Amino acid sequence: LKYHAEQRVPVLVEAASERNAQAQMLEAESSMTARSASAAHSTTDSPEFQELAERKRELLANIPPRGEKWRWHREITRVNRRLSELTKKLAEQSRERLKCIATEERQQRILQSRETSFCLFPLDEIAPRLQAMADA
Fold first, then answer.
1. From CA 23, how far away is CA 20, in angstroms rounded?
2. pLDDT tens-place string over residues 15-41
3. What are the C-alpha distances in Å from 47 to residues 40, 42, 134?
4. Positive or negative, the Cα torsion across 123, 125, 131, 136?
5. Chain centroid to CA 9: how far?
6. Rounded CA separation 83/53 (Å)
7. Where does the chain have alpha helices with state H?
8. What single-letter DSSP state applies at residue 113?
9. Residue 79: count of CB within 10 angstroms of its CB
10. C-alpha separations of 60 from 57, 70, 86 in Å
11. 118 with 126: CB under 8 angstroms?
12. What is the pLDDT of residues 36-80, one digit of tens each?
């Protein structure tokens, strides 16, 4: 455990380990991004997806007047449902990524917090508590 001079907060990982962790995170992020991009590309390039997207554009460009929307509404609902099915895997990957980012952000917020007075409490007591909060 060491202190970062500019921020005056404990850095819970040694410098070399921190670089390794950052490198692993970037590698995981890039592979996840590549998989997501590949999945998105294959999904959005499929002929079915293109046809549905075009059909939705047509429907939205030609919204019928009030009282005559029953068929239009059924059709756009069908198109939306199928588009949702086609992009379900990509949406799930995006939700997982957002969950990881939220966890990361929460950990950074704790580490950068100045609410814990490091000069009043022994470092041996504060570090495990911060780590437990970060892991929660």
1. 5
2. 444 555 555 666 666 555 555 555 555
3. 13, 10, 45
4. negative
5. 26
6. 8
7. 15-44, 47-61, 70-86, 88-111, 123-135
8. -
9. 20
10. 5, 14, 20
11. yes
12. 555 555 677 889 999 999 999 999 999 999 888 999 999 999 999
The pTM score is: 0.48
- Structure tokens belonging to residue 74: 């059924």
Q: Which amino acid is at 37?
A: A
**What is the spatial distance between Cα 111 and Cα 35, in angstroms, rounded to a whole number?**
31
Instruction: Give the length of the chain.
Output: 136
The percent of residues in the chain predicted with pLDDT above 70, rounded, is 64
Nearest C-alpha neighbor of 33 from the set 100, 102, 83 = 100
Q: Scanning the structure block, which residue is given the tokens 């969950």?
A: 99
